[in-house]
Design brief:
Distance between the termini: 17 Å
Strand order of the largest sheet: 1-9-8
Number of strands: 10
Strand content: 15-25%
Number of helices: 6
Largest sheet: 3 strands, mixed
Helix content: 25-40%
Radius of gyration: 17 Å
Number of domains: 1
Structural class: alpha+beta
Bound molecules: iron/sulfur cluster
Order of helices and strands: EEHHHEEEEEHEEEHH
Length: about 200
Amino acid sequence: MPSDYRLRPRDDGAGIRFQCMKCGTCCSERSLIVTLTGHDIVRLSKGLGLTARQLLRALDFYLLSDDESPPEGLRRFPAVRTDRGMVYIALKKSNDGRCVFLDNDLCMIHPIRPGACAAFPFVFTRDGTNIRWGLSAMRDICPGIGEGNEVSEAELLQLAGPVLEELDEYHKFAEAWNRQWSGEGVIDLIAAMLQDSRFR
Ligand code: SF4
Ligand code: SF4
């Protein structure tokens, strides 16, 4: 990431304190959708040794109709075309709304957890040479906000870098995939991500 990127608060002001209390609330919240990028999917596949077909068991596909605007959590992610329609790819939830990778309030895939999980409760967007940060729309569920030390600009930039770079690459993939799409389904889509050199 170029060093001349500047950090600007999006809507929450500067000087926020945060310390994760490892309570697992964000992983248990039914309405918090963990949207995935191509990098997230490749990390899951490699880390868990899963093929595209096996990986489907850990994924949910959120379908939006053409005239529906995506909810807040999905807006920064591109939708990808499949034979089911335009979908957002997310981590699967159990029937009780908890992430399938949550066990006794601990993440079973912590080293390879998705970028959105690593960044929560922060969200980042790029605006020219500014990186804007803010708090998730689901901020109210997180007891870690207001705890611990003030999060420094350097820490936020370190968190934002990989999240934004991986999102940029996923946007490029989605644009190419949607343009060239010729009837493929979700398995083909996941297989194409696993083959794509930009996600290595
Ligand atoms: S809800 Fe907040 S404090 Fe609890 S695990 Fe998630 S990020 Fe950490
Ligand atoms: S992958 Fe891990 S950190 Fe992310 S929602 Fe699931 S249990 Fe929580």
